[in-house]
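The authors assume throughout that readers already know how a fold can be written as discrete tokens. What matters is that the chain and its backbone geometry are given together, residue for residue. A single example would do more here than another paragraph of explanation. For illustration, here is how one protein appears when written out as sequence plus structure tokens.
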Amino acid sequence: MNKLFGKTQGDKVIWAIVVILSLVSVLAVYSSTGTLAYRMQKGHTEYYLFKQFAELALGILIIYFSHRVNYTVYSRIAVVLFLISIPLLIYTLFFGSNINEANRWIKLPVINLTFQTSDMAKLALFMYISRQLSRKQNVIKDFKKGFLPIIVPVCIICGLIMPANMSTALLLGASCMLLCFIGRVNIKYLLAMAGIGILGIALVVTIVLATGVGGGRAETWKNRIAHFKQTEKTDAPYQVQQAKIAVANGGTFGRGPGNSEQRNFLPHPYSDFIYAIIIEEYGLAGGFLMIAFYMIFLFRSIRIFRRCPYAFGAFLAVGLSFTLVIQAFANMAVNVNLFPVTGVTLPLVSMGGTSIWFTSLAIGIILSVSRNVEETEGRQITADKTTVNTSDAFSPAPAEAVA
């Protein structure tokens, strides 16, 4: 075990945040799944505790093994993953399993595991965009050679995700625009990208309304936006009302672990609305700590971006960190009614299988960049010391020694 920990490298603060969020996840999921265990007739409430613990343990192993891989390998993998993601998203759109009135999942045979293809597509897209930005820096201001090879993949992936999961597509598109801005893409092209996105949304909504592709999600989108715009508390959706009650009950320091009452009334308290349960049990103090953990994670990733000497690693670290943190803040905003209800989960905290594993892979890649940055800086320091010692050997002795 000591040998294993000895090989753990990369940003230690990010490692600490991963462990802390995993512990919070185990406590929050265990507290919020009692009703689910009873409804699903699992026999005992510890079923989901053990399940979540096993998924997080596998996630940490994924982080460990992926951070041991040189991040340049992911540049070659990015193309393959991107090309695989397109047919998988198309298959999911038309033949995916319908869960919670959305075709977002495919069921893997034999192991009977549901797999959300958009999770893999998001990771593949950021790896591919980072690769393209690093390779196109000399022509990044050119529309045909620099901008088109970046915008086309973004439009394809977001367009395929949108019919079944608009919130994920919008967050993904916004994160890609932010990464492109950091990658020095021309501002006027980014504005054009935003305009194309608006037209794309209108087109997708029209197609969904006309064909019913995506499980009839257009009506859900319309209802959520209409409910969010309403000012009367009694007109708010049921889950929003219960989330507000959970937040109000939490007070400053909360009811204490396992003492949530709204977990019995709030739909999906273990996934979409887990942040409301955290506030109810740990109060506003716990809620602010969760925000702080994600912000520290982002700042440490930006630090890796600034220290990385190579463009691909820098874009990879900052791009993946931005998408995880933006997703986290979107989830928390929904829980406190600052954003319309979406199906976005809280990264590394909400209950899940493949979503946790792909989040872990993203964090592992960030740590891989960090590990290589540390090794590069270590070699540079060693080289500088060697140069200094060599120069000292041939330099004249101080005046005091000569005397």
Observations:
- The chain has two domains: 10-68+233-370, 72-229.
- The two ends are 57 Å apart (CA to CA).
- The longest strand covers residues 102-108.
